[in-house]
Design a protein that fits this description.
It contains 5 helices and 2 strands. The chain is mainly alpha-helical and about 110 residues long. The longest helix has 21 residues. It comes from Rickettsia amblyommatis str. Ac/Pa.
């Protein structure tokens, strides 16, 4: 469902936010993590959300990678650098990893 939407924060005015950006916000993640909601755990949760986004893109029939590209290039470029250096396995697919490495060169 999330990948059928073009973009990381698409909105439908009557039904609210249908994008995934709201689920990656610090306040939302802190609420979900409860007593475990320190900055490090919120960062880890965002990294795991990135992995889930990659899995969803790979497993979708449309192969829509818009959410992955949005996360990498505009929404969380610093966190993407950390994922690239510490957890490249979160990219799931080598093509995403190569895309980020190419972007770092520019």
């Amino acid at each position: 469902m999330l990948l059928k939407i073009s973009g990381i924060n698409s909105k439908f005015s009557i039904l609210g936010n249908w994008g995934i950006k709201g689920y990656l916000g610090d306040r939302y993640l802190a609420k979900q993590l409860g007593v475990l909601s320190d900055l490090k755990n919120i960062e880890i949760a965002k990294m795991l959300c990135f992995e889930a986004i990659c899995l969803g893109a790979i497993n979708s029939s449309s192969k829509n990678f818009t959410c992955v590209k949005e996360f990498v290039s505009r929404t969380y470029p610093e966190l993407t650098n950390k994922i690239t250096n510490e957890h490249p396995e979160y990219f799931i697919d080598g093509s995403y990893y190569r895309y980020v490495l190419m972007m770092k060169q520019f």
